[in-house]
Structures
1.
Amino acid sequence: MLRITKDEALARATEEAGGAPRCEMCVLAGAGARGLALRETANAVAVLSRYAVRRGHVLVVLRDHREAIDELPAEDWLALSRLAWEATRALAAVLSPVRTYVAALGTVTQRANSFPHVHQHVVPLFDGGTSDRPAEVFTWQGGVLCYEPGEAEALTAQLRARWPA
Ligand SMILES: [Zn+2]
């Protein structure tokens, strides 16, 4: 993987959005159609984050653009959480992390690196030391990992092969 700086990542994400405001989570929720999904259900899609804070960072995205967890039907939240749990299993089988974080973050307003659209982060950790603290993991301050050509596709295939039935 290639580590780029926060500023480079923000510039790249903004360029990819074509300068027009759009919800990247809505784009990802349609990823199944482009063959990128690790797993998809009627309610949610799991996909590798293209701006990863750790190798194997998975995003689980609600299909519908909904912005508040407390306004979701329970079945939507449970569908997201089910996929996140499945992702932890697949990541454990393929990458053997020492621990895995699951977090629902997001912002009130849309930014280049954060979106109000409800989603969960599944982040495998490999260090076991201070760099695994949440404040060190859930930030772009230390840079962002981008996959080299073909790398994300290969990891996607590995995770699909070990995804729980
Ligand atoms: Zn959206």
2.
Amino acid sequence: MSYTGRFAPSPSGRLHYGSLICALGSYLVAKHFHGRILLRIEDLDFYRCKKEYTTQIIEELNSLGFEYDEPPYIQSEHTEVYEKAIKALLEKNKAFYCDCTRAKIKETPCTCYQRQQELDLSKPHSVRYRLDGIENIFDDFLQGKVKTTFNENTLVLKRADGMIAYNLACVVDDIRQGVTQVVRGSDLTDITPAQMCLYKDFKAKDVSYLHLPLVLEDEKHKLSKQNLAKPVLDLDTKENLLISALEFLGQDISRIYVNSGCKGILNKAIESFDIKRINSLPKLCPYL
Ligand SMILES: [Zn+2]
């Protein structure tokens, strides 16, 4: 079977070091398997995502030498697809309407599926998904069996404010785009079994997963835009950044030279890429 991978950043800021690791990791793995690599912009969070960041991220990836096999897929241009997917799950009784507040859900699990007839749908409501038969374990390409701690009985698909949830859009698009392996950061391991339930309900073939090491900003916290991680291109030259990211992914950089330029570095990195050298343990960001 041919391989299709993807990099799916969220434009809530410019690329940071963690996103560079995911961009490079997903790129190298796809090239290693002689596959295709796609770029998907996950911009459904209308509070945090901005069009200007979408443009910047695409430009930044381009300037780092990454070449994608299709034009960027922008999620906000396809909302009707997610609405259709939600409708299909509602019709199958896998999804249901919910009027719980966020505070209430934190205290007691949502059981709105037992009182669908009583709900007043003229008032704000979300759509949730029943996580039947979720298993808290899955196979990771690098880490083997991974145990997760996610213990919710339901998952939001569409929020009361109309925002399509990440988990739904991500699975719908991975299926539509024919993604065969999801390579992403280890911050998403916990949600993986819930996403696998959605695959089943869409009668889609499961993808395989490879979770890359997390970039930490200190012993406990992952580097993220919420923690105001600096834009990666402000930290060093593009060539140095690529080499540092290769080192972060455990790759042999002894024959990779700064003066080859970004594309030259990426080509060399593809040639010498050794997937087994990626250590999945979290590591501190080298630019702290
Ligand atoms: Zn509810």
